[in-house]
Amino acid sequence: MSNSTVRSAGSDVRPSRPARPGAPQVPGPRAERRRRRAREPQRQFRGVVSPQTLSTPHGKAIYWIVLVTVVALFTAVFVFPLYWMITGALKSADEFAQMPPTFFPKSIDWGVYKEAWDQLDLGLFLRNTLIYAAGAWFFTLAIDVTAAYALSKLRPVLGKLVLALMLSTLMIPPMVILLPAYLTVKDLPILGFNLLNTPWAIWLPAAANGFFIFLLKRFFDSIPRELLEAAQIDGASPVRILWSIVLPVSRPIIGVVSILAVVNVWKDFVWPLLVLPDTDKMSISVGISSLSAQMPQNVLMAALVIASIPAIVVFFIFQRSIMAGLTAGSLKG
Questions:
Q1: Which stretches of sequence are listed as region Disordered (predicted)?
Q2: What is the pLDDT of residue 38?
């Protein structure tokens, strides 16, 4: 091979020359990365187990075992009463009273649900409760939405004081205001009406809810004020702005307030027991309780299952809306 060929082949590759004595050493990329990591402040992890431990196979196994155990335990604690109610309704009266109790019914009897429906007159109680829940939902939105809108956007004089007084009512135990509320319903101030055995005794107290007003106000605070000012420039009144702009934007939180208002009326027991003494006016919870002494235990369990179905269905359908609405408006951005 000629010298010219050797020179042409080696022209692209230059041999590395040794550094001259005293010349500064240029660090390589790996050494530079090590120095950067050394200069970075060490992160302090405050927890029971460090991320380094969780990254190991042993740590991952312990993590998943503890997670599955805790989730299964809490699920069993919350679901077991519902399971016991459903399976107890499917047992016969003798099997239900058997000691020790059986966890699975020996013979399933679906006719107990029809017996509970007929003997306890659940159709009447369900219709009454539906009327009470629908009216409470309407008045809750009509009163709480307008109050929250006024406190958030209209900003009246002493608005912060009024809000503080509303929130202070959440610190009072419900049993403390039970007697004053009953006396108020029995003899309505100024007007002097007796609201006992009327739906108004359920609707009006349900609408006065400081927690709902607080939730709605927090969401209304997150609505950009420029949007409302643009509507005001176009000549829209405050009522028009509420109806055309605020309400369409506030569908998540309005859905949450609606669900909570209906469920609160549906499951309430003490207040309907006081203000609705007539049998024809009773709600589902009070009606079942008043007739429970005359019914077999399995029939009573079947009635409780029927009464629980609407609330359970509402929760499973709107559970995402509940979580989304409760976190909506918590962060501005």
A1: 1-52
A2: 60
How far CA 216 is from CA of 118, 132, 246, 264, in Å, comes to 42, 22, 11, 17
Residue 89 makes CB contacts below 8 A (sequence gap 6+) with: 112, 113, 116, 298, 301, 302, 304, 305
Q: What's the pLDDT score for residue 81? A: 85
Q: List, for residues 222-274, the tens digit of each pLDDT value.
A: 888 888 888 888 888 888 888 888 888 888 888 888 888 888 898 888 899 99
The identity of residue 224, as a single letter, is P
Instruction: Answer yes or no: is pLDDT of 11 > 70.
Output: no
DSSP character string of 23-50: PPPPP-HHHHHHHHHHHSPPPPP-SSS-
Question: Are 220 and 159 within 8 A, CB to CB?
Answer: no
Domain 117-327 has CATH 1.10.3720.10: yes
Distance of alpha carbon 120 from alpha carbon 298, whole angstroms: 13
- Output 197 or 35, whichever has higher pLDDT: 197
Alpha-carbon gap, residue 327 to 261, rounded angstroms: 18
One-letter amino acid for residue 61 of the chain: A
**What is residue 54's DSSP assignment?**
H
pLDDT band at 44 (very low <50, low <70, confident <90, very high): low
Structure tokens at 67: 């997670």
Continuous H helices in the chain: 3-9, 29-39, 51-54, 57-89, 93-96, 111-119, 122-140, 146-149, 159-168, 178-186, 200-207, 210-221, 225-233, 238-241, 247-249, 251-267, 270-275, 284-291, 297-327
DSSP 8-state assignment for residue 246: I
Residue-averaged pLDDT of the chain: 79
Domain ranges of the chain: 51-113, 117-327
pTM of the model: 0.72
**Amino acid, single-letter form, for residue 217:** K
Q: Is the pLDDT of residue 67 over 60?
A: yes
Residue 13, pLDDT above cutoff 50? no
Within 8 A by CB and 6+ apart from 138, the residues are: 203
